[in-house]
From TrEMBL, chain A:
Keywords: FAD, Flavoprotein, Oxidoreductase. Residues 338-410 form the Reductase C-terminal domain. It comes from Streptantibioticus rubrisoli. Residues 10-315 form the FAD/NAD(P)-binding domain. The keyword Flavoprotein applies. Signal peptide: none annotated. InterPro entries: FAD-oxidoreductase/Apoptosis (IPR050446), FAD/NAD-bd_sf (IPR036188), FAD/NAD-binding_dom (IPR023753), FAD/NAD-linked_Rdtase_dimer_sf (IPR016156), Reductase_C (IPR028202). Its cofactor is FAD. This is NAD(P)/FAD-dependent oxidoreductase. The keyword Nucleus does not apply. It comes from the Bacteria.
Automatic annotation (TrEMBL), chain B:
PANTHER family: CYTOCHROME P450 YJIB-RELATED (PTHR46696:SF1), P450, PUTATIVE (EUROFUNG)-RELATED (PTHR46696). Residues 61-85 are annotated as: Disordered. Belongs to the cytochrome P450 family. Coiled coil: none annotated. This is Cytochrome P450. Transmembrane segments: none annotated.
Length: 458, 405
C-alpha cells in the first residue's frame, strides 16, 4: 500500500462490533499509524445478540458479553465520549468534551439505538424499558428475575418476540401488542408470520395484533401499571418493553454535508460515504447498522441492515478500502444473513425476504415446524428462511447469488409434493403499518413501486 | 488413460498408497461418467454444492434399478447416515441428545481426562520397545477404548465386535463391477448380530443407568418419543463402527504424515499450540474417509453435466481437499494453514456426527506421541494399506523407535 495510506491518522466513530472489527482489520492489513476509536458507551466493545436471549433468561450476566478481540488493535480508545459533529473540510471529528480529533481517513460506525416511546413522560415511568445496551438488558433481567405479574411488549419484531420468548421461558405472563397482522411480518412476510403467531400463542403469549398502544399508565409513585390499547382494552402489567425498532445514530452528522438521514449514511459498494450532492467522498467510510449501501442482487437498491454478520463483513471491506487505493479496493457484496432463537425454534434467513412477490415451502412443512421457505421476485430466488433447518441455508444462498429461477426445482427428499410447487403471495406489508421496524429495509422502493418509510407510526 | 475408468483405478488396491494423481486427473475432467454409468465428482465447489443440495439422497433405496444391489428390506433397520430428512433429522437429533448440545453440552469435554489416561497407558506399554506397529499398538486400541467407554460397551468384547465391524465396513466399500451380494449379506448379518448385542447391553441398564450413552438412550428418552428397539440397534451399531473405524485412520495418517515431514514434526513438538490446526490440516491432507455416495432424486446439474435421477454419484472428498481452486498449494502439508474449510468431515446435514470427539482424540493422541516420534523412523514407506478405498488408511504402520537412553 502507498506509504501515506499506511500512516495518516485514522478515526473510527463507534466502538461496537463494526468499529472493533474494522480496527482489527486495519492492523491486520498493515496500518501502522495512529488509530482512535470513539464510543459513547463507557464499555469496551460487547456483543448484543445475547442481551435479548441468554441475559434475559438469567443464564449470563449482562456484563459478560464482551467481544473477544482477534488481535490487539493498538488503538486509543475514547470511551464514554459522544461525537457531536464532523468537519469534512477541516477533516476533524468534534467530541462532546470539546476536543476535536483530526483524521486522514474516518470510519463512521455509530450504529443504531432503540426507538424510544414517543411520549417522554410515559417513557420515564419506572418499569418501562427499551433493549439495546448492556445496561438496558441488565435492568430488564433484574426486573424479570423479580417475578413481575405481567410484562407488556410493544412491537413483535425479532427483539420483541425474543423478549416475549424469554419471559415465557421464565414462566412470566406476557402480552405482545403489534399494529401489524402478525409477529415478524415486516421481515418475513405473511406465511411465516402466521407460523410465528401460532408459536407465540402455543407458548402462552397473549398476542394482540392489529392494535396500537395509545397510552402507558402509571400510578402516583411514577410506576408503570398498564397500558391502553386502541381497541379500547386495557392491559395491567408491571413491566413494559418498547421494542419498536431502531433509530440510526446520524444526528451528529446533521450539519456535516454527508448524505445522512433516517435510513442511515449512504455509501457506495466500497463503503465510501456520499455527500449530500451524491458525490462520493474518498476519506470518509461507513460500516454496520448505520450504513445504507447499494446491492447488485437487489437491483442496486440501497439496503439498511441491522445484522451482526453484515457489521463484520462490511467493517472488514471498509477497513481494507481505507488503506487501499484504486483497483485493489473491494466491493461489499455479502448476501444478508441473520438469525433468531425464540419459542424453542431457530430461525435463520439469507437474502432479503421482503424483496419478493412469492414464497414457497421447499422443504419440510409449517406443521412440522421444520421448514425452508424460499422467496422469489419475478421468477428468481431472492431469499430463503429456515426454521430449525439452518444447515440447508448455504444451498439457498448459492441459488440467490446465482439468481436461480423461482420456484426452486421440486424433488427435495423432505419436500412435500404439490406444496413445493405452489407458490403463495409473499404478503410483505408496508412497514408504515407496523409497530416493529424491519431489520432489513429496502430504502428505495418495494418491488411493487410503493415508496417506503422505515419510521413506523406509533 | 480414459477418465471413465477412474473409479476402477481409484478402488484398485494397487493405488491405495497414492490415489492423489488419480484425483488430479478427475479434477481435470470435472465430472467423470464411469463405464457402469455412475459418476465421479472431485472438485471442491462441486462436492460442496452436492452436499448441500436437498435433491441428493443418502438412501440407497433411491438407486435406479440397474444399481440397486440387494432388495432394500435386507438392510433394515437403516442408520441415519443412510437416510434422508425428515427421518435422518429425527434419528440424528435423538442420537445427539446424550452426546452433544443442547442436551449434553459437556459430554466430549468431560471425556478429555479419560482419553488422556487411555493414551498414557498405551504409551506406557510401548516403553522399552524399539519396534512398534502404530495401528495395532496405538491408533486402533485408543478409539476402541474411547467409544466403548462412551457407549458403555465392555472393552473385553472387542474381539467379537471387531469381526462384525470388519464385515460391515467391507459391505459398505465401493467396488465397481463386482457383485457385492456376498459381502452385503455378510454385512447385514453382522449388523443384525451387533445390533442385538448392543440392544441387550442397553436393556441390562434399564432402571440402573451408568453415565454411558446406551444407558441414556433407554433411561432418558426424548419426551416426545425415544428410539424404538430397532432404531436403537441401528444407531448404536453406527456409532460403534464409525467410532473406531475412522479415527484409527486419522491418527495413523497423522503419524505417517509427520514422519514424512520431519521439519513439521519438530515444529509441532516445539509449538504444541499448533496441534489443533495440524489436526485440521491432516483432515484435509489425508482424510480418513475418501469417498461418499449420493443418489440424485431428480436430474441434477453439476459443472455442466446432467446426472440422471437414481444414478449413483461418488463424491471424492479427498480430491476436493486437494483442489487448487480452493486451497493454495494443496499438495503441501502445512499445519499453520488458515482458511482450512476441508471436507474431512463432509458438509451439510450429514456432517460427521462424531467430529468433536475425533478432533479431541486426534489432538490428545498426536500430542502424546510427538515426543516419541522425533527419533522414530518408518520401517516401510508406503506402509501396507487397509483394503477399503472408502475408509483409506494403513493396515499396519511399523516404526522403529530409538532405544531409551
Amino acid at each position: 500500500m502507498p506509504g501515506d495510506l499506511r500512516e495518516g491518522p485514522i478515526v473510527i466513530v463507534g466502538a461496537s462490533l463494526a468499529g472493533l472489527r474494522a480496527a482489527e482489520k486495519l492492523r491486520e492489513e498493515g496500518f501502522t499509524g495512529s488509530l482512535t476509536v470513539v464510543g459513547d458507551e463507557p464499555h469496551p466493545p460487547y456483543d448484543r445478540p445475547p442481551l435479548s436471549k441468554q441475559v434475559l433468561l438469567g443464564m449470563s450476566a449482562a456484563d459478560t458479553t464482551g467481544l473477544p478481540m482477534r488481535r490487539d488493535p493498538d488503538a486509543d480508545w475514547r470511551l464514554g465520549v459522544r461525537a457531536t459533529g464532523l468537519d469534512l473540510v477541516g477533516r476533524q471529528v468534534l467530541l462532546a468534551d470539546g476536543e476535536s480529533l483530526p483524521y486522514d481517513r474516518l470510519l463512521i460506525a455509530t450504529g443504531t439505538r432503540a426507538r424510544p416511546w414517543p411520549q417522554p413522560e410515559q417513557a420515564a415511568l419506572d418499569g418501562v424499558f427499551t433493549l439495546r445496551t448492556r445496561e438496558d438488558a441488565g435492568c430488564l433481567a433484574e426486573r424479570l428475575a423479580a417475578g413481575p405479574r405481567r410484562v407488556l411488549v410493544i412491537g413483535a419484531g425479532f427483539t420483541g418476540s425474543e423478549i416475549a420468548s424469554a419471559c415465557r421461558e421464565r414462566g412470566i405472563e406476557v402480552t405482545v401488542a403489534e399494529r401489524g397482522t402478525a409477529p415478524l411480518v415486516g421481515a418475513l412476510g405473511g406465511t411465516l408470520a402466521r407460523l410465528a403467531a401460532g408459536l407465540q400463542r402455543a407458548h402462552g403469549v397473549d398476542l394482540r395484533c392489529g392494535v396500537t398502544v395509545t397510552a402507558l399508565c402509571g400510578n402516583d409513585g411514577g410506576r408503570f401499571t398498564g397500558a391502553d390499547l386502541s381497541d379500547g382494552s386495557h392491559i395491567d402489567a408491571d413491566v413494559c418493553v418498547i421494542a419498536m425498532g431502531a433509530v440510526r445514530n446520524v444526528e451528529w452528522l446533521a450539519d456535516s454535508g454527508l448524505a445522512a438521514g433516517p435510513h442511515g449514511v449512504a455509501c457506495d459498494a466500497g463503503c465510501r460515504a456520499f455527500d449530500m450532492y451524491g458525490i462520493v467522498t474518498d476519506d470518509v467510510f461507513v460500516a454496520g447498522d448505520v450504513s445504507r449501501f447499494p446491492h447488485p442482487l437487489f437491483d442496486y437498491q440501497m439496503l439498511s441492515l441491522e445484522h451482526w454478520g453484515n457489521a463484520v463483513a462490511q467493517a472488514e471491506v471498509a477497513a481494507h478500502n481505507m488503506i487501499s487505493s484504486g483497483p485493489p479496493r473491494r466491493p461489499h457484496l455479502a448476501v444478508p444473513v441473520f438469525w433468531s432463537s425464540q419459542f424453542g425454534v431457530n430461525i435463520k434467513s439469507v437474502g432479503v425476504p421482503t424483496y419478493s412477490d412469492q414464497v414457497v415451502i421447499a422443504q419440510g412443512s409449517l406443521s412440522e415446524r421444520h421448514l425452508v421457505a424460499v422467496y422469489g421476485y419475478r421468477g428468481r430466488i431472492t431469499a430463503a428462511v429456515t426454521v430449525n433447518m439452518a444447515k440447508w441455508l448455504e444451498y439457498y444462498q448459492g441459488l440467490i447469488e446465482a439468481a436461480a429461477p423461482f420456484p426452486p426445482a421440486p424433488g427435495a427428499a423432505d419436500g412435500h409434493p404439490l406444496v413445493t410447487e405452489f407458490a403463495l403471495p409473499s404478503d410483505v406489508p408496508d412497514p408504515r403499518g407496523l409497530s416493529h421496524g424491519p431489520t432489513v429495509a429496502l430504502t428505495g422502493h418495494l418491488p411493487d413501486r410503493r415508496l417506503t418509510v422505515v419510521r413506523p407510526a406509533g | 488413460m480414459a477418465v471413465d475408468t477412474l473409479l476402477e483405478r481409484i478402488t484398485d488396491y494397487a493405488n491405495r498408497p497414492d490415489p492423489y494423481p488419480l484425483y488430479a486427473e478427475l479434477r481435470e475432467a470435472g465430472v467423470a461418467r464411469q463405464t457402469d454409468g455412475s459418476y465421479l465428482v472431485g472438485g471442491y465447489y462441486d462436492i460442496v454444492a452436492l452436499f448441500h443440495n436437498p435433491r441428493l439422497s443418502s438412501d440407497r433405496r433411491n438407486r435406479a434399478g440397474a444399481y440397486s444391489g440387494l432388495p432394500a428390506d435386507e438392510e433394515e433397520p437403516r442408520p441415519f447416515i443412510r437416510l434422508d430428512d425428515p427421518e435422518h433429522r429425527r434419528l440424528r437429533s435423538l442420537a445427539t441428545r446424550p452426546f452433544g448440545p443442547p442436551h449434553s453440552p459437556g459430554r466430549i469435554d468431560a471425556m478429555r481426562d479419560e482419553i488422556t489416561r487411555i493414551t498414557d497407558e498405551l504409551i506406557e506399554s510401548l516403553q522399552g520397545r524399539t519396534r512398534v506397529d502404530v495401528v495395532d499398538d496405538f491408533a486402533y486400541p485408543l478409539p476402541v477404548s474411547v467409544i466403548c467407554r462412551l457407549l458403555g460397551v465392555p472393552r473385553e468384547d472387542e474381539p467379537t465386535f471387531r469381526e462384525w465391524s470388519n464385515a460391515i465396513i467391507d459391505s459398505s466399500d465401493i467396488r465397481p463391477g463386482e457383485n457385492l451380494g456376498t459381502s452385503q449379506r455378510a454385512g447385514n448379518q453382522a449388523r443384525a448380530q451387533m445390533g442385538r448385542y448392543l440392544v441387550d447391553l442397553a436393556e441390562q441398564r434399564r432402571g440402573h443407568p451408568g453415565d454411558d450413552m446406551l444407558s441414556a438412550f433407554v433411561n432418558d428418552p426424548d419426551p416426545t418419543g425415544g428410539l424404538t428397539r430397532e432404531e436403537l440397534a441401528a444407531t448404536a451399531v453406527l456409532l460403534l463402527v464409525a467410532g473406531h473405524e475412522t479415527t484409527v485412520n486419522l491418527i495413523t495418517n497423522g503419524v505417517l504424515t509427520l514422519l514424512r515431514h520431519p521439519d513439521q514434526l519438530e515444529r509441532l513438538r516445539r509449538e504444541p499450540d499448533l496441534l489443533p490446526g495440524a489436526v485440521e490440516e491432516l483432515l484435509r491432507y489425508e482424510p480418513p474417509v475418501h469417498l461418499l455416495e449420493r443418489i440424485p432424486l431428480t436430474h441434477v446439474d453439476v459443472a455442466g453435466t446432467t446426472i440422471p435421477k437414481g444414478v449413483p454419484v461418488v463424491l471424492v472428498l479427498a480430491s476436493g481437499n486437494r483442489d487448487p481452486k480452493r486451497f493454495r498449494d494443496p499438495d503441501r502439508f502445512d499445519p499453520t494453514r488458515r482458511d482450512n474449510q476441508h471436507l474431512g468431515f463432509g458438509s451439510g446435514v450429514h456432517i460427521c456426527y462424531g467430529a468433536p470427539l475425533a478432533r479431541v482424540e486426534a489432538q490428545i493422541a498426536l500430542g502424546a506421541l510427538l515426543p516419541h516420534l522425533t527419533t522414530a523412523t518408518l520401517v516401510e514407506d508406503p506402509p501396507p494399506y487397509r483394503n477399503s478405498a472408502v475408509l483409506r488408511g494403513p493396515r499396519h504402520l511399523p516404526i522403529e523407535l530409538a532405544p531409551s537412553p
